[in-house]
Amino acid sequence: MTDDQNSPVNPTEESAGQLSDSPPGAESFFDDPNIGIPATLQGTITPANRSEPAESEEELAQAFFADEDVEPQEVNPHLDQSVNAVVVAHDGMAWLPIVIAALRAQERSVQNIVVVDTGSKDASTDFLLREFSPESIVTMPRTTSFADALAAGVQRVGISDWLWVLHDDSAPKTDALLHLLDAANRSDAAVVGPKVLGWNDRGHLLEIGVSIGLGGRRETGLERGERDQGQHDRDHDVLAVGSAGMLVRRTVWDELNGFDPFLPMFRDDVDFGWRANSAGYRVTIAPNAVLHHAEAATHRRRSADIVAQHPKRADRLNGMRVVLL
Fold it and tell me: Domain containing 92: what range?
């Protein structure tokens, strides 16, 4: 399924992920008797592909991002440009409600959302059926590659100026899309990525753009366990950005034929960024756009049915394919 890309394993992230199937923020939200169980998890909201969040979804997103200040900024929302989002889900119920809540709570809302479920065996399917109309859900087999799942979602979601790619374990901060669009328009970039931080360890810096070494190793330019102190907070061009939170011009996506299905999982984003650069397009990072990523498949918090090897071995093999081919 999704390419929970391979920054080095952080012990805090790994151990925290083993303590509970529920992400931080969900526990405090559900345990607060003054708030109550959100309607999104009870199935009482009428299924629809809503662009405006329900009150309980706003609360869920606020609870998850409660310890992160959002400073008001004068940023052009570029309302003249349409954005459609595609979320790929695979046994992601531990994170999916917060991801959908964060997506719907964006200060700069998307026009349409399509979720592609690749044969989830947990409660993800029931959750999606409660939350979305049938035409907003694409169901595919468990062995579907991320590239094929994304292609099906893109076909279903329709035409727009921009395509926003999300994993079911990647929650964008509520002003993330606002900053991604602003950075893209200021730099005339075709592909833009957010600053990616840990899901449990919120200060763990996972990605600020990615590259690749000659041996196929994924290169982030970060120290192992590096903390986010704003030291990389400047827009800058990169070879590629991770697929979690990637914003790409739809015309460029179509021209490059999306992700390569030959790479069933992992490194498809590096390959796409490389091809975009080779075609003369600009790929950049917008560090003011923040996304929290659980990297669930990489840390084996769920099965990766599309690959037979250990996720890190599959990642390295695909890295070598990208370099050699």
Answer: 11-43+53-71+82-324
